[in-house]
Amino acid sequence: MATIKQDKYILGQSVSKSIASVAEEIRLDLKLSPQPLNNAGSVTGTVKDENENPVPNALVKIMDSNYEPMFHAITAADGTYTIDNVPAGSGYNIFAIATGKALNQGVSFSIAASQVITKDFTLVNDPSSQLGIIAGDLYDSATGAPINGAVISLYKVNEDQTEVLVAITYTNQYGQFVFRGLNIGNYSIRVSALGYIGTSSTVSITTQGQIVPSIINITQDPNASRGTVSGIITDQNNQPIVEADVVLYRVNEDNSLTAVAFTKTNSAGVYLFINVPQGNYKVKSNKTEDIVIL
């Protein structure tokens, strides 16, 4: 067993003082602080793909038990990494990810002073990384204000120019909307907002994983009815449901439904749609919740 020397304290430095005369005496005291890195270990390992090939430029990240980020390293050409100076402790979480690969969370670990532990990873392809995204913004053409609660419908445009509905979403309070998981191709975006003239826009996803912006301006309808639809969403105990999703549907002549607006209830369970044109309407409502799967 070899014996080496290491610093017990952090290298200290005193203030400066001058000796200005012959035989003058000065005093330079210094308080040293313990070297915290002496109570630390190292984590090392290799990141490979499903075929046992090394994955260079992968990111390996260590977080504490509350998932606060602490350290990270980038793998070398041979897929190896080392993270030094990890304080002795327990409950560490470790992750690895690379471009085109799915996030891999390793088993949580503990580490002791001067300990070196190995954490290897195998990263698999992330199919969603090959799919495109359309990220849009909807504004009032006259005022530039974002439009909340508009219904955004996405249609895939086929080679024969026929269109197939593939997704529906709603703008948030900033007028933003997002469609995810899209294949390469041409798409048509149709916009419906109460009090506005409907409009459409075309976008194309030309490469895998492409993110396409779409800025749409919509014009107010001067002939639109100024009706309102409001109500209260309650649970089985007649208690108001806060932040419930509420979708307003127009009932067509054949009794089919067309979504025309979206909103959320307030703290009293109340919702309100304004600028509603003449016609028959109904609302649908629900609320999601987070669950823990063991």
Automatic annotation (TrEMBL):
<protein>
    <submittedName>
        <fullName>Cna protein B-type domain protein</fullName>
    </submittedName>
</protein>
<dbReference type="InterPro" id="IPR008969">
    <property type="entry name" value="CarboxyPept-like_regulatory"/>
</dbReference>
<dbReference type="InterPro" id="IPR013784">
    <property type="entry name" value="Carb-bd-like_fold"/>
</dbReference>
<dbReference type="InterPro" id="IPR013783">
    <property type="entry name" value="Ig-like_fold"/>
</dbReference>
<keyword id="KW-0964">Secreted</keyword>
<dbReference type="Pfam" id="PF13620">
    <property type="entry name" value="CarboxypepD_reg"/>
</dbReference>
<dbReference type="GO" id="GO:0030246">
    <property type="term" value="F:carbohydrate binding"/>
</dbReference>
<keyword id="KW-0732">Signal</keyword>
<comment type="similarity">
    <text>Belongs to the serine-aspartate repeat-containing protein (SDr) family.</text>
</comment>
